[in-house]
Amino acid sequence: MSDRQPVNLTEDEIAAVRSWVLLEDPHVLVLNKPSGLSSQGGRIKAHTLDDLLWAFMRSNGKRPELVHRLDRDTSGVILAAKTKPAAGFLGKALQAKRFRKTYLALLSAAPEPAAGTVETPLLRQEVGRESYMRAVTADTPGAQAALSRYRTLAKSEDGALVELDPATGRMHQLRVHMASIGRPMAGDARYGGALTFAGKAAPRLMLHAAKLVFPHPEGGYRTVEAPVPEDFEALKVAAGLG
Q1: Where does the record place the Pseudouridine synthase RsuA/RluA-like domain (predicted)?
Q2: Which of 65, 67, 110, 241 has the greatest number of C-beta atoms within 10 Å?
């Protein structure tokens, strides 16, 4: 799959990435990515998930390739292809919007209405070495169409648990869309989210890729779900959200 040189991984790194496997067959590899790990190259000089895929290198020197990305602080389901034909098939399926991604997020208050759609266009901006997305009007030069669906699953005086479905795949889309309706995600300091939730620290973005439904190279669809991380679950319980 890859002509790049293998990355030297420690035994602990190999054990860790192998422990994240949710589904593996001859064609695909699905992992539960932890928060704080970049999907691919960034400014931080540390191994990315892309690097860690060398733990699955085959005898021919090839290894899986990521089909899509998650933000560094987003946890959850991420898909890799194990063969070149699978990569081609899944890449085309992704472009054709045949993937269904479901996320969970913690918000300081429930959206109003409790369920709905956000269709605000987004504009990518570079500020120093950082990339941001900004909600803009449709006539803004460079604006990209974006559509997100949301549904409140539980709410209390301390916050809300929402389910999110991005119909488009813009960078930071869900984060910016929820912030645009006055409901930034807990821990998302970049887009106005508080670093506390239900009286407890929320030191990182509380966004989790909970489920992925995707067409399989052998036919039909596969559904893979990832349990929420312990810190997400603890804040959810602290807010009385089940």
Answers
A1: 27-180
A2: 67
Other CB atoms closer than 10 Å to residue 105's CB: what's the count?
Answer: 27
- Specify the DSSP class assigned to residue 6: P
Contact 165, 100 (CB under 8 A): yes
CA 205 to chain centre: 11
Instruction: Give the model confidence (pLDDT) of 68-90 as tens digits.
Output: 999 999 999 999 999 999 999 99
Identify the bridge partners of residue 55 per DSSP, sorted by sequence position. none
Active site residue 71: yes
Q: Is 61 left (phi over 0), alpha (psi -120 to 50) or beta?
A: left
How far apart (Å, rounded) are the C-alpha atoms in residues 5 and 112? 51
- Which residue out of 51, 71, 73, 188 is catalytically annotated? 71
Q: What is the pLDDT of residue 40?
A: 85
Note the pLDDT tens digit of each residue in 118-130. 999 999 999 888 8
Q: By C-alpha distance, which of 217, 215, 228, 230 is closest to 163?
A: 228
CB atoms within 10 A of CB 114: 13
Q: What confidence score (pLDDT) does residue 154 get? A: 98
φ/ψ (deg, to 5) at 14 = -65, -45
